[in-house]
Structure formats: C-alpha cells, structure tokens
Write a structure and sequence with these properties.
Aspartate Aminotransferase, domain 2
Amino acid sequence: MSDFRLPPELIPTDGRFGCGPSKVRSEQIDHLIAHAHLLGTSHRQPPIRALVGQIREGLADLYRLPSGYEVVLGNGGSTAFWDAAAFSLIDSRSAHLAFGEFGQKFVTAASAPWLSAPIVNTGAAGEVSQFTGDEDADVFAYPHNETSTGAMSSVRRHGASGALTVVDATSAAGGIDIDVRETDVYYFAPQKNFASDGGLWIALMSPAALERIERIASSGRYIPEFLSLGVAVENSRLDQTLNTPAIATLLLMDAQLQWIRDSGGLSWADMRTRDSSRRIYDWAERRSDASAFVAVPEHRSQVVATIDFDETVDAAKVSALLRANGIVDIDPYRKLGRNQLRIATFTAIEPDDVTRLLGAIELAIAAL
Ligand SMILES: Cc1ncc(COP(=O)(O)O)c(C=O)c1O
C-alpha cells in the first residue's frame, strides 16, 4: 500500500479537497504576509476597522445587496449564529428543513425553552426536504448546501408575509450565485468558498430581519451579549465585532473576496464550481462502480460532490492511498458512515486539479 505513488501528471497543483477547513490559495498567504504589520494591532483602530469595512463593502458588491440590506458579522462561526438566532431572530416559532447534520443542528439550537417547539421537515441523507406550505412559523430556515451530504437546495422565500427566510450558506456563499432578495438572512462562515480560517460568522440581512432583531432586543427577552444580534448589528455598523476577531481570518477572507470580484464576481465563481463538480458527476456516471450519492440531479451540490462506491471499491483505502500522496480530506462526513468520497469543489479549487484528482482516484482503485 505504501508503495503506491502517483505519476507527476496526476498530482494536483494543490491536494486540499476538504470541505472545511478547505484550500487556502498561496496568493492569500502572500496577502497575509504583505499585511503582516496589521497582525497584533487593535481591532478598534482604523486599519482593522478599514479591513472589516472593506469586507462588508466587498460582500455588498459581490451579492449586489439591495438597498437597506446590511452585512453583519460576529465571532463564533455559524454554530454561534444558530444560538444567536434562537435568542435574537426567532419570535416564537421556527420551521426548518433538516436533511443532514447541519440543518439538524439549527433545529437543536431553535429548540430553546423560550420558543415553541420548531416545526421540522426532515429529509433522508442525500435528499432535500420541502416545506409543506402550511407551517405557522415566523422563521423559515434551511441550508443552501448541506455539507454533510452534498445535497443543495434552491434559495427562495417561504412562509407568509412577515416571516423571515433564514438560509445557512456556510458552504455555499462565495461559490453559488443567488438572488439575495429571496432571503432575509444569508449567513455563513468563511472557511469554505472564502478559503479563510474558521471562527467568524457573517450574515447578509434584509431590512425586515434588522427590524425583527431590533424589536426582540427591546422586548425584554434575556439575551446574552455574545449572542445578541442587536449588539452585532451595532458593532458591524462601526466595522467592528463585539469581541476580538482573528485578524488573519479577516485578511485571508479579504484576499479571497477581492480575487472573486476581480475574476468576474459571483456568476464567475458559480460557473467555476459548476464546471468542477460536473467533472466529478460525469466521471461517476461513466463508471460502473461509482454513482452520485444525491439521486436527484438538480439537488447535487456544485460545491461538495459526494460519490458512492459499490462493494468492489473500498473508498476509505482509496482515500488513505491518496493521503499518502498529498491528496487530503476526501473522506465522507464522519457520521454518514458510507462507502463514499466527498470532494469539495469550492471556488479556490482549480477545475483542472479536479480532473487530476479523478485520474488519481482511478489509479488508486486499480491499485487496491
Ligand atoms: C452547512 C454548515 N453549516 C454550519 C456549519 C458550522 O460552521 P462552523 O464550524 O463555522 O460553526 C458548517 C461547518 O462545516 C456547515 O458546513
């Protein structure tokens, strides 16, 4: 097994295909080094606030934010955002689509004692569940891309007027084009398509969401400061976070955001991730021992491709052979327990590296 060596033409220029943390481009590291003098400086002073401001403006431009929408950010990643939403965004009851680990985690956070029990439309792993249309809820929440399974939903509004559509875009943002007017809150963390490090959450918020946050903040509900979206909005308007952010995370995010904008924006990123993922799905289609895990083609993620193998292929061994050759993190989501490879096709990943990876997988299968 340890003798397995890939020929140079099948070695991707970058072997990181993990779904988060994910590939960081070397140009982002150059950007970090060029701005090294900002590391270790106060986040309350102009240089770091200008950096936060640049990220907020860059995202507003990337997403063509309609007037009144704001970019809000805080610490703690998307996981902290779920708890913040339970305190600051859900009035009395939320409705959810839960078709994987991450959709389910928001349900858990929304099962808070001060709220009515959430309405949950569960879907099997690999599927995308749907709202029934008669949910009585003031927040409609679903993942845009379920990173644990590679199932992708379409971003659109749900619920009666006054209800908020809250979309987990953690692994979608920066890689899939959307019409942000179809959402009230489109939130994410930057360690996927934005190729940064973890620890931050960022949300694009509509005027209706901002009003809701303000109303709940002044309602007398107990809200811990760290999980107060009202406090996050106030700080964001000053280009700050409530508590100390990781400055390196901001710099890496800024570099990736600039690169995506300079390369053609969200539609460019969308085309690139479609191209990369299509290479994988087409490849699986051509093979008799592999198949896309997500059965419905339009639900197959363009940023996280999950490929099942039949009993003739041990996917874990394939992954181990490739890891020994510098290709890392293509194992399935740890709790899914399938004979599968999961490959990120985030914006940073070169489509031609995906082609090299597929050749490398073929060679590893042949060597088993
Ligand atoms: C869809 C989705 N939501 C939420 C999270 C949690 O993000 P974080 O680790 O920043 O809390 C992840 C992490 O992989 C994710 O993929």
